[in-house]
Amino acid sequence: MKLTKKEVLHVAKLAKLSLSPSEISTFEKQLSDVVNYVSELGEVDTKDVEPTSQTTGLTNVFREDGEGGESISSEKALSGTEKIHNNYFVVPQVITKEK
Amino acid sequence: METPLTIESTQSGLINKKFKAVELVDAYLAKINVQNSRLNCFLTISEEAAYKSAKKVDRLIEDYSTKAFEDYPLLGTCVSYKDLFLTEGIRTTAGSKVLESYIPAYSATYVARADKAGAITLGKTNCDAWAHGASGENSDFGPTKNPWNLNYVPGGSSSGSAAAVAANLTLWASGTDTGGSVRQPANFCGVLGLKPTFGAVSRYGVVAMASSLDSMGHFGRCTEDIKRVFSVTKGEDGRDGTVKNSPFLKPKAKMKIGIPKEYFIGGVDPSVEQRVREAAKVFEKEGVELTEVSLPHTKYAISVYYIISPAEVSSNLGRYDGVRYGNGRQSFGAEAKRRIMLGTYVLSAGYYDAYYLKAMKVRSKIIEDFEKVFEKVDAIIAPVSPTPPFRLGEKASDPLKMYLADILTVAGNLAGIPGLSLPFGFSGEGLPLGFQLLGPRFSEDVLFQLGNIFEKATGYKPNVAHI
Fold it and tell me: Which residues does chain A have within 8 Å of residue B242's beta carbon, measured at their own beta carbons?
């Protein structure tokens, strides 16, 4: 099977990536190659096999209330950006204003 | 001065006042300054932090003498961290332009523990961006070179760490192994590399690649050093829910090693295979029993890996939006984009069952294979990479070909088991060869025991690449 240009653009949108025209055609081919390769799994009989999401065998690891320890200060948390307003992060606008 | 090659010789030199920790740092930094322009293994050199720690080390030895080494097991050992490990106040890039100028506000548990044990941080090492790669060529800051031959790749993704240990620019170094990223560069650079059991070492504060596969490991020049570092980094920290202080398996007096036939078929270079078989014979001579075993689903491991790993990558890299730190998503390099795209695709509506769910089921079959084999043997011996180191640029234009370089290492990550990569001689072209030992979960002590047996039997001495 082959990924179409439309599918590449759809996936890029889901992943919030903007691609150049040359990247789109490169990814069409390269992603198709990989997807074709991994499709070999179809031949494995997995009837009645439970899926594995992790290997520790642990479930629901909780800590006691109040054991959280110290948390990072707001000054340190904000140290990675210059886009700050009144001790808050400035984020890109996500809701469009009504016209 | 010549810097010592092991933790033992470093610490005995410090105790016997042959040199001071400050002089060790002088020597390492001088060598790094001369060689890094050719090797490109360091992205950041933390000179100030290194001298600050070294002065503290010298004071502790002055005040407490040998007692200081009991309280600080890694005292005076110079370490370099793969640039995925957060180091408070020292730039951490993950090899990506997205984090080009990111200065972490806290350190990873791994780093904090090494600091507390008296290690001296020399700097941060180059790697494939976000740990995506098997050659080091995917770093946004240029490829690392193999110190044994500058035209060859050092392996990846922990390329700079492996190369720095091989060239004696650091005593030991950290790495992450998600699909072979410690074992394979160790193999290509002629040093030792440990991929611990998933859940043995905390991942807290390490830039995540694939969260069900990432293992925090390290590089060194002998089994004893690998063991000493592991004794400091392992164990619960209350910040990574997958880490458990499980009891470790004890090595038996009489051990059995399995040779999995599927690791020697098709595409494995004869020089690689021959070395592994010779290594197996060394064990046999030392009274370790050898037996052929079968891991029938091995051939599917790479497909399972290149579904599960990109899926988790696409989720983990979703957080990089340039709002709280770092640059925006336009700064991702080609390989990161490719893996995000692939992962997003296999998780997207209509494809989840066919790819992701199917891969999780085949993962169970791969784990079952290992469980069956470990009922019969204590460890498995296998090649690490199907080929000796390859030339820079040789596979760079064909991602699928590059992905296949991981074919013999990814199954260990899918099963969450530990692996130790050991060097064993050189190819006709003077490039390192070696093998890996894999054991059941929490069998690190068994692997260390086997490593010690091997080193003793072969009269092993650490090799340093002189460039």
Answer: 54, 56, 58, 61
CATH of the domain at A21: 1.10.20
A20 found inside a domain: yes
Instruction: Tell me if A63 is assigned to some domain.
Output: no
List the 256-295 stretch of B: residues with Cβ below 8 A of A: none
Instruction: Examine residue B135 and say whether the peptide bond preceding it is cis (omega within 30 degrees of 0).
Output: no
Q: How far apart are the first and last CA of chain A?
A: 44
Pairwise CA distance, residues B165 & B457, whole Å:
23
Nearest CA in chain A to B337: A17
Number of domains comprising chain A: 1
Q: What is the pTM of this model?
A: 0.97
Active-site residue B364, yes or no?
Answer: no
For residue A99, the model assigns a pLDDT of 66
Q: Of A27, A8, A33, A23, nearest to B303 (Cα)? A: A33
Instruction: Give the helix/strand (H/E) hosting B80.
Output: strand B78-82
pLDDT along chain B (467 residues), means of 10: 96 97 98 98 98 98 95 98 98 98 97 98 98 97 98 98 98 98 98 98 98 98 98 96 94 97 89 97 98 97 97 98 95 97 95 95 98 98 96 90 90 98 96 98 98 98 93
Boundaries of every domain in chain B:
7-300+360-458
The answer to whether position A35 is within a domain reads yes
Record: contact A37-B303, CB cut-off 8 A: yes
CATH number of B7-300+360-458: 3.90.1300.10
Q: ipTM of the assembly?
A: 0.94
**Distance between CA atoms of B363 and B300, rounded to whole angstroms?**
9
Measured between beta carbons, which residues in chain A are less than 8 angstroms from residue B177?
none
pLDDT of A71 strictly over 90: no
